[in-house]
Amino acid sequence: MRSRLSPLRWFAALKRGWMLYHLGDPQFRFMWDAPPEDEWVALDCETTGLNVKTDAIIAIGAVRIRGNRVMTSERLELLVRPQGQRISADSVRVHRLREQDVAQGISAEEAMVRLLHFIGSRPLVGYYLEFDVAMINRVLFPMLGMGLPQPRIEVSALYYDYKYRQLPAQARDSTRIDLRFDSLMQDLGLPVRPAHDALNDAVMAALAFVKLRAGAGR
To answer: Which pTM was predicted?
Structure first.
């Protein structure tokens, strides 16, 4: 007798098949492989500004996580040459990357190829990851006809849930939880690296994920 898939697994298999059928470049089929057990990739991008429709990626940092270890020896750090976009003065003040700093970077398309091979099929981890993924997907859609398929884990959401569970029931609707990155890191007792550096931010998000996944040390 043939085993029957649950509705959820059937839908996932159908979606995987549909996406593979429509994949613009078959060399990236590996993104739909089963991910290595207990592995993730923490990811961060620096950009010319904060508009996902008009700004461009200028730096990408990523690091692998294996179990409860942040594998800093397995990292990716890329400078990306913006294609015609200027880096705003406000952005330079944040990440300290000037146009001359990234002029010799690689193209956005080459950066995507290297990033996808680094990620593989591993789930993604990040702090306000939605913005980074939106910026990446804007480059990927012309290349692949789709964006990143990997599951995403938002560190600020994990932290919110962790703090919310600590609140007395009567205070849960009235207490504001501070989700700023530096506050989160300090509250978790984690080392803080210089912020707004793509690799540093990826490593810090990875550290926070590992600690929150372990119950924040409880």
So the answer is: 0.85
